[in-house]
TrEMBL record:
Gene Ontology BP term (one): pyrimidine nucleobase catabolic process
Pfam families, A to Z: Flavin_Reduct
Keywords annotated in UniProt: Oxidoreductase
Upper lineage: Bacteria, Bacillati, Actinomycetota, Actinomycetes, Micromonosporales
Flavin reductase like domain segment(s): 21-168
GO MF assignments: FMN binding; riboflavin reductase (NADPH) activity
Descriptive protein name: Flavin reductase
Organism from which the protein derives: Micromonospora maris
Domain of life, source organism: Bacteria
Length: 193
């Protein structure tokens, strides 16, 4: 039997909704554009879409500088951050950082071979992308992109973001901060404790 959920009588409280969305653990990326006005932002809304053709998507707040940058540039880079790169994630999430080329002075990067977008040195993977389609997503835009180039680092651990905090799991699923297997932490009430 197919049961339809009851519609809520009241609109969702944005704070509670954000907290509920935050229970979904994600990887952490830095999305970048090159060119005359380079820009970077930390993003956890990066998703693979298709293998054939190779497509990915990112979701960007329509008020963000990155939104305008993506539309103007049409190409971008994605660096999937490694476990030791939490400071890089924090840097590109900080609204007080310098803008333009100066924001990249604090990190090691190389220009993407095909896009010129800054790619973070030491990242688990780099994707060079070209915009293909965009869709309205409420206060965000969903950008779908063709992959132009991919590079990955084998045998490294990534950084996760869950419940508003960065976390690290080793290859055995042990939470680096707690020394507890991830499944045990989840049973006890979540990876973040």
């Amino acid at each position: 039997m197919n049961v339809q959920p009851e519609p809520t009588a009241e609109p969702c409280d944005p704070v509670q909704l954000r907290r509920a969305f935050g229970t979904f653990a994600t990887g952490v990326t830095v999305v970048t554009v090159g060119g005359e006005c380079p820009h970077g932002m930390t993003a956890n809304s990066f998703t693979s879409v298709s293998l054939d053709p190779p497509l990915v998507l990112i979701c960007v707040d329509q008020q963000a500088i990155m939104h305008r940058s993506l539309i103007e540039c049409g190409q971008f880079g994605v660096s999937v951050l490694a476990a030791h790169q939490e400071p890089v994630a924090r840097h590109f999430a900080d609204r007080r950082r310098p803008l333009g080329a100066a924001q990249f002075d604090a990190v090691d990067w190389v220009p993407g071979r095909l896009t010129g977008a800054p790619l973070i040195v030491g990242a688990l993977a780099h994707f060079e992308c070209e915009l293909w389609r965009s869709y309205d997503g409420g206060d965000h835009t969903i950008f779908v992109a063709n992959l132009l180039a991919v590079r990955r680092e084998p045998e490294a651990d990534g950084v996760l973001f869950v419940r508003g905090r960065f976390r690290q799991l080793d290859r055995d699923g042990i939470d680096v901060a707690d020394g507890v297997p991830a499944w045990q932490a989840a049973v006890r009430g979540g990876v973040t404790g």
